[in-house]
Structure prediction request, 79 residues.
Amino acid sequence: MADIISPLPGVFYTSPGPDKPPFVTVGDSIDAGQAVGLVEVMKQFTEIRSEVSGTVKSVEVENGATVNPGTVLVVVDEG
Prediction:
């Protein structure tokens, strides 16, 4: 298992917009480098990308929740 963590404080978004589908959902296969969410800090959006390939086991943070550096956002089962 691998944790994808927030590198900075801000607000986590699971999709690129209110009317857009989420970047990832539980059960999705993802590739290293794939975006899994956004963190907004002072109107600046930073894409959070996976460093591993595998299957999304859980999305740990709700859309619109405040996160801190080190907060686990997504858990991926590598392989």
Summary: The chain has a mean pLDDT of 97. The domain at 2-78 is CATH 2.40.50.100 (OB fold (Dihydrolipoamide Acetyltransferase, E2P)). The CA atoms of residues 11 and 66 lie 4 Å apart. The two ends are 9 Å apart (CA to CA).
